[in-house]
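Example 9 (inverse folding). The structure is encoded as follows.
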């Protein structure tokens, strides 16, 4: 199976924000829409790097898979039982280049909330992806989670779909978080978003 060692698309996944729409680099844009009436079920889980030498499956920060490879990987994963606890494996949302990341994460979430989506920004520098922001109501808990996991990765799942598993670089006090979604998949998450306004 083909592994792609290109990490460019890693930046297009989940973007943890310290305040407003800034976080892992300068990814916000002036093309912003306020969102109202949209809510997501979001869970945050501790993520782990995983390497199964028998089946040759590695879940690390520097490799991803083509969508065409997922069936073969899923078959191999069926026989893998991580020894260190209760884990699940999930594929991230498909990027615009047809690739996905495989994420290993603890079954028990660190945080689970129904969140209100606040804004959407276009990201032309990342192939037209849309950055969607939301805020956890329990900002103190989110701050504690991010502080306790600095240097580690957290898997963020939106409506049952793994978005990504970024490394936490600092404590986030505001409760803010965002995910980046390929433009051709944004309707699945924000059906009423006016994409034409983001293109202006």
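The amino acid assigned to each position is listed next.
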């Amino acid at each position: 199976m083909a592994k792609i060692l290109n990490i460019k698309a890693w930046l297009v996944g989940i973007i943890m924000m310290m305040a407003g729409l800034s976080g892992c680099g300068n990814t916000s844009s002036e093309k912003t829409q306020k969102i109202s009436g949209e809510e997501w079920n979001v869970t945050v889980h501790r993520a782990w790097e995983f390497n199964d030498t028998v089946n040759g499956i590695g879940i690390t920060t520097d490799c991803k898979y083509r969508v065409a490879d997922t069936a073969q990987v899923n078959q191999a994963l069926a026989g893998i039982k991580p020894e260190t606890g209760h884990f699940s494996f999930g594929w991230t949302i498909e990027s615009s280049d047809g690739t996905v990341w495989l994420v290993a994460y603890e079954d028990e979430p660190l945080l689970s909330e129904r969140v209100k989506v606040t804004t959407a920004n276009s990201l032309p520098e990342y192939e037209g992806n849309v950055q969607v922001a939301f805020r956890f109501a329990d900002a103190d808990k989110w701050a504690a989670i991010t502080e306790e996991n600095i240097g580690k990765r957290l898997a963020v799942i939106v409506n049952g779909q793994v978005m990504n598993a970024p490394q936490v670089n600092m404590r986030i006090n505001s409760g803010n978080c965002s995910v980046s979604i390929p433009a051709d998949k944004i309707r699945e998450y924000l059906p009423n978003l006016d994409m034409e306004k983001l293109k202006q």
